[in-house]
Amino acid sequence: MKLKRELDVNRRKFLKSAGAGTIALGSLPLLAGKAWAGGDDEQKGFHFVVVSFGPAPNRLQITGDGTFDVEGNVEGGGSFDNFLAVPPPPDPFGSLGSGTWKARKFVSFTLPTVTAPGAPDATHGVFQGGILKLRADFHPVGKQKVKDVLLEVVCNLGAAGASTPGKDEGVIVTLPDGTEFVPNGLGITVFTHNEDSD
Hints:
mainly beta; 8-stranded antiparallel β-barrel
């Protein structure tokens, strides 16, 4: 019961602070492009602030911001903080530590499997739902670089009626040794594109 109460409090604190992050996401530059169903090759943006859960008591706070296109180009990165959720705070670091990450290789971008009839490209205004997979290098402070980390960014864009059943909103992080961190409902992910300006 005590752990559930602590998780509820931590979730409220995170969502309250994530509100400020939502404002920051809204002020990010918007990028040109449409859904790739028609073969367009323009850029899209990815933006996220999430907490993913690994093997208990591992947690991974991770942010990301960048661009990608259908031709396989990807740029961007963010910060991460791996910690062990054991009371009392401050929580000790997990084996990954804390540091930055940089996108290295575009793997794929797919549209959600469920879309509304009026939004088959999973868009609502300048936002778009979908699943981005990319490879990245993690640079923990005071530790060796961790290469070839797989990030799967999932955005189920409710306003567009877009979702992929079985894929929770968030970021799945898979380390080279197979350790996986999965979404748990804490955070926000979004892809951006621009509507035609004509």
